[in-house]
Design brief:
single chain, 344 residues, alpha+beta, six-stranded antiparallel β-sheet, five-stranded antiparallel β-sheet, 29% strand, disordered N terminus
Length: 344
């Protein structure tokens, strides 16, 4: 009798083990267009699945497609080529790369690479003066960090402050509002804008843009608009070319369109030859002339500019020789607070 009871208990235990749910898993492939078995299969095992803390914080990185529910087919991918335990420091969450041979895998999917400790990250905010959580957090993920080709070429754009080491706090900024992969055509360098809602990002200067720019207004007191147009056009032409730059960037201007109420021009930096587009619109106001000035970086990925777009405009107004009042605010000009117009 006792023997029979023991058998029943053992059978019940086996049934209980068999009834335990396998860890929730998702999988993807290194090259989905290749025939099955000629690429690697990536798998993430996630205890508690979609209800887990890992998924709440990191699930946005695993959209479907290219990620699908279920584990990799181990009959097609019998070898373990890479294993990252406790992914993103979440206990029990494991990343696996399975392949068709016993060679070490070279690939790591972006969703995993982005949370790997080896990826250096910097972050900044759309409005550092606002309370935490009431602005957007910008993040740039840079494989190899300060020793990377990206940093060698583009690191000057990310001074500290306002950029700081480390990733954005995803508990304070849980939503992805913008993602630019392979920033400036550097593979693996990703720009992210994280926010407090699921709306498109709208901060940093003019509404609906995070692009480096400046918008301001001048009032040229006691000057006809024809005189203001002539004086600003003369300043553009005077500061054209690169033969008289000295140690500043008060050069490289090129006149585009000019008429009685409008000027369009460009400014090009003398060393790296980055280009900005400028416009000025003129309207009479009694005995004065009001000018709406705007400058924006041509490079599509330019987010910050050290106040360069402001200086593009301000230096022209100073060089015009006319008396003017300038109305400008930090909300309308990227990095106005650190603008150095003696340099830029």
């Amino acid at each position: 009798m006792a023997h029979g009871i023991a058998l029943l208990v053992a059978a019940a235990a086996l049934l209980a083990v068999g009834a335990q749910a396998a860890p929730f898993a998702i999988h993807s492939f290194s090259d989905p267009s290749s025939p099955k078995g000629s690429q690697h299969c990536f798998e993430v095992d996630i205890p508690d699945g979609h209800s887990s803390p890992f998924w709440a914080a990191e699930g946005w990185r695993y959209p479907s497609p290219p990620w699908y529910n279920g584990a990799c087919d181990r009959s097609a991918y019998p070898y373990v080529n890479k294993h990252i335990p406790n992914l993103a420091n979440y206990t029990g969450v494991d990343f696996w790369s399975y392949g068709i041979s016993n060679d070490a895998v070279v690939e790591t999917p972006a969703a995993v690479a982005e949370v790997a400790p080896a990826v250096f990250a910097i972050h900044s905010f759309s409005d550092p003066s606002s309370p935490k959580g009431s602005q957007h957090c910008f993040e740039v993920d840079i494989p190899d960090g300060h020793s990377s080709p990206f940093w060698a070429a583009e690191g000057w754009r990310y001074p500290s402050p306002p950029w700081y080491n480390g990733a954005c706090d995803r508990t304070a900024y849980p939503y992805v509002n913008k993602h630019i992969p392979n920033l400036a055509n550097y593979t693996g360098v990703d720009f992210w804008s994280f926010g407090i809602s699921n709306a498109a990002v709208e901060e940093v200067g003019a509404p609906n843009t995070i692009h480096a720019h400046c918008r301001l207004q001048w009032t040229f007191t006691g000057a006809a608009c024809s005189d203001a147009v002539s004086a600003l056009a003369s300043a553009i032409n005077k500061m054209s070319g690169f033969s008289d730059c000295g140690t500043s960037e008060k050069c490289g201007y090129v006149m585009g369109t000019q008429n009685a109420t409008f000027i369009a021009a460009k400014h090009e930096t003398p060393v790296k030859h980055y280009k900005d587009d400028l416009t000025m619109s003129f309207s009479a106001s009694g005995s004065d002339c009001k000018v709406q000035g705007y400058s924006t970086s041509e490079i599509w990925y330019a987010v910050l500019d050290d106040g360069t777009n402001y200086c593009n405009l301000h230096n022209l107004a100073v060089a015009s020789g006319l008396t003017f009042k300038e109305d400008v605010s930090a909300s309308d000009c990227t990095q106005l607070a650190i603008a150095n117009c003696d340099k830029y």
